[in-house]
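Journal club side-thread
Mid-discussion, someone asked how the predicted structure for our own chain would compare to the paper's figures. Pasting it here so we can look after the session.
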Amino acid sequence: MVDFSLNANTRDDLGKGASRRLRRNDGLVPAIVYGGNKEPQSISIAARELNKALENEAFYSHVIKLSVDGKKEDVLLKALQRHPAKPRIMHADFLRVVAGHEVTVHVPLHFINEDNCVGVKKSGGVISHTMTDVEVTCLPKDLPEFIEVDMAGVDLGDIVHLSNLKLPKGVAVPALAQGADHDLPVANVHAARVAVESEDAPAADEGEESAE
């Protein structure tokens, strides 16, 4: 399992103008840390360090060691605000993690055995993913980096739902507690869609001739 750590500094100069200066002049990303029975704290993180961490998918669903002015605490990344047109992080939100308290996190789905999927190999079907991650609730110590979706036994016309996911011990999908209507599809195998030109359709040049 990968260990993630970030260094941050307390930020006292607040407001849109101050945030703009941080990003433009200092190469820093404004952020906030909240939760854990403590007051929210405004911080700044080196954009280069944050962008490097974001290259790893596990960073989005992993407990992060955040050092603020040398004081370390465990946090989770809860939200990112990206620039609408440029590859730039505008703001980040981090939630403090408290041991023994459940957290709710979006965890990536990893689809495995797609090449051996029965609906693909035997029936020529196509796999479609309707989710790329799933919201789970668990204790910080039980937080998985990802959840596998085994497609090997999925036949043509079959749908994999949230309730079909094999969850690690201590991990739950809160949506399932809201009833059958929230047991959403995760993936399916459907027939390949092939565009077939009708033999009865007139050719383009024939249509043009008849119009003259």
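Post-session note: The mean pLDDT is 88.
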